[in-house]
């Protein structure tokens, strides 16, 4: 699939520019110029005009700086420098992991079937004849759909001989597997925190980049730049799919940004594998029907909020992030820990893990690398890997990886499957398992393909998979 | 039939700002066309010091800024045609 997404590139450019300003110690002064620098006069606009473009960027910056939008105050009365200053003083108030930047949200039309003017008003009128709800009538020789009666079955679209009927979706709503995002009366989208599992699908789907995640660049930069703070980066194994370089080079390059240490989360995955296989043996010995993994926070969030019948079967073993962070804190309690990964739901998981101070995305990491002039191959030379980490620990990044690790530990005496993605079909299958399990060990990852396809990745999936496989065989 | 030299910048700036997608774009060309392109991957081409307009590629030595998958394909098709 060829898919260039400028909304995604805009977010990355914003991150890069803000980290650069942080590094130059010029955030408060410089931030106000970013919108105009990114959308100079005389260039093609993205929205209706250059002013709206800049205005949207301004709001996205406020969100990245750590303030919830929409807010109670009129943000246009407040200069960006004020937000920057507040954010540097740790007074950024953002609690929401995901928020909709309303200025960017296009308030897409309610999703519906819609008759275009390709309609010829033919005599056959299959749309009207086949509509099970009698929602289609003809006026002035053209078909029209009564939206009140339409149940969106799509039959009319299938039978129209002129392909005159289109479906206009709301991309974020279509992408959300749990119906957590929906329209308010004003047409703008709203995310229901009680339903959201932080899978990040809406964020990827929105063609306007209107859904922004909480950022930690300010906090992490502060730790890196201040001499009296120490910070260790624990990096998810999916990182090996992100760059065309060896795992050792990638880790060393990250360290060069200025972290005191860089640890593989795959090391924590070794702990997870050990505990998880012990737990599996135990549960099987007790006669339990099956057990599912617990390392994917979007999946455990989904069980919590949408599939409580599965709760007794989810393993209690903690995720690799937790074990990796505990190792760091055990060695040095004063060390701050930032988890860096491709995952949005980890930001949520991180909030409840005291050993993890910050969670950052690969996109934010990319911004740091650029601002600090890091070139992975060059800056990562001569590094070595921790021999304790095996290919099974690193394999957690790909769908099937946890299953492989468990089979390697306990042998193939239990039946196993792996499920990737929480689409309708998989969700139904999982829920049914509470009554009728299809395997004794069930690996679940909310992203198709596993963490290498996480919503905050840098490399497209085909490339990430190829690079990941190469890294695992090295 | 002439060959085309395509150099894709794999410096961090270009890679993050869309260069990663370009690798896949070239591989999506039909085989007869793909075979006529020598693809190489370069470290930072040095255009991005002040931000610049990444991602950059070079087609037969000509530097092109702000490349997307679709305009890269278009440029390559033109060059392939000219080199026939
Ligand atoms: S990274 Fe491509 S020109 Fe520098």
Structure notes:
The complex is a heterodimer of chains A (474) and B (84). Chain A folds into three domains: 6-107 and 172-215, Alpha-Beta Plaits, CATH 3.30.70.20; 112-168, Alpha-Beta Plaits (2-Layer Sandwich); 219-473, Rossmann fold, CATH 3.40.50. Helices cover 40% and strands 12% of the residues of chain A. Chain A has 21 helices and 15 strands. In chain A, strands 10-9-12-13 form a four-stranded parallel sheet, sandwiched between helices. In chain A, helix 1 (6-23) packs parallel to helix 10 (217-225), helix 1 crosses helix 16 and helix 12 (265-285) packs across helix 19. The longest helix of chain A is centred in the middle third of the chain and has 21 residues, at 265-285. Chain A is globular. The mean pLDDT of chain A is 93. By secondary structure, chain B is an alpha+beta fold. Chain B is built from three helices and four strands. Chain B has helices at 12-27, 31-34, 69-82, and strands at 4-9, 37-42, 57-59, 62-64. A four-stranded mixed sheet of chain B has the order 2-1-3-4, covered by helices on one side. In chain B, helix 1 crosses helix 3 (69-82). Chain A binds chain B through residues 2-4, 9, 12-13, 16-17, 243-244, 363, 366-367, 369-370, 374-378, 458-460, 462-463, and chain B through 10-13, 15-18, 20-21, 23-25, 28, 41, 43-44, 51, 68-70, 73. The structure holds FE2/S2 (inorganic) cluster.
């Amino acid at each position: 699939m060829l898919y260039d997404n400028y909304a995604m590139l805009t977010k990355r450019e914003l991150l890069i520019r803000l980290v650069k300003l942080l590094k130059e110690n010029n955030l408060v002064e410089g931030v106000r110029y970013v919108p105009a620098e990114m959308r100079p006069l005389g260039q093609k606009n993205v929205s209706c005009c250059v002013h709206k473009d800049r205005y949207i960027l301004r709001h996205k910056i406020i969100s990245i700086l750590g303030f919830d939008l929409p807010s109670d105050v009129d943000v246009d009365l407040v200069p960006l420098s004020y937000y920057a200053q507040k954010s540097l003083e740790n007074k950024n108030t953002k609690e929401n992991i995901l928020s909709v930047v309303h200025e960017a949200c296009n308030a897409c039309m309610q999703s519906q079937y819609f008759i275009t003017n390709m309609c010829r008003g033919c005599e056959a009128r299959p749309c009207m004849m086949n509509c099970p709800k009698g929602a289609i009538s003809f006026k002035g020789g053209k078909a029209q759909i009564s939206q009140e009666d339409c149940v969106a079955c799509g039959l009319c679209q299938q039978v129209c001989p002129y392909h005159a009927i289109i479906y206009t979706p709301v991309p974020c709503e279509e992408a959300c597997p749990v119906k957590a995002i929906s329209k308010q009366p004003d047409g703008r989208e709203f995310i229901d925190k009680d339903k959201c599992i932080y899978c990040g699908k809406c964020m990827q789907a929105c063609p306007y980049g209107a859904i922004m995640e909480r950022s930690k660049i300010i906090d992490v930069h502060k730790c890196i730049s201040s001499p009296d703070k120490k910070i260790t980066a624990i990096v998810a194994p999916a990182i090996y799919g992100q760059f065309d370089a060896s795992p050792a080079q990638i880790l060393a390059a990250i360290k060069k940004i200025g972290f005191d240490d860089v640890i593989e989360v795959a090391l924590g995955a070794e702990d997870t594998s050990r505990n998880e296989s012990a737990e599996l043996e135990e549960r099987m010995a007790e006669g339990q029907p099956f057990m599912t993994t617990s390392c994917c926070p979007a999946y455990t969030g989904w069980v919590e909020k949408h599939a409580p019948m599965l709760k007794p079967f989810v393993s209690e073993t903690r995720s690799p992030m937790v074990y990796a962070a505990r190792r760091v804190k055990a060695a040095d309690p004063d060390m701050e820990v930032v988890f860096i990964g491709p995952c949005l739901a980890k930001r949520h998981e991180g909030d409840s893990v005291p050993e993890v101070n910050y969670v950052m995305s690969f996109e934010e990491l990319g911004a740091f690398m650029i601002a600090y002039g890091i070139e992975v191959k060059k800056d990562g030379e001569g590094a070595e890997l921790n021999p304790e980490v095996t290919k099974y620990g690193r394999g957690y990044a790909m769908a099937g990886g946890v299953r492989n690790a468990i089979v390697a530990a306990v042998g193939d005496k239990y039946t196993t499957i792996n499920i990737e993605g929480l689409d309708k079909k998989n969700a139904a299958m999982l829920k049914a398992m509470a009554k009728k399990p299809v395997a004794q060990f069930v690996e679940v990852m909310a992203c198709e393909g596993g963490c290498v396809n996480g919503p905050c990745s840098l490399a497209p999936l085909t490339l990430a998979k190829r690079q990941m496989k190469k890294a695992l065989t090295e | 039939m002439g060959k085309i030299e395509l150099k894709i910048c794999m410096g961090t700036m270009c890679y993050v700002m869309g260069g990663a997608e370009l690798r896949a774009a070239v591989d999506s060309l039909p085989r007869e066309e793909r075979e006529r392109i020598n693809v190489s991957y370069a470290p930072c081409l040095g255009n991005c010091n002040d931000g610049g307009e990444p991602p950059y590629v070079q087609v037969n030595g000509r530097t092109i800024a702000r490349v997307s998958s679709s305009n890269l394909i278009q440029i390559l098709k033109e060059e392939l045609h000219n080199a026939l």
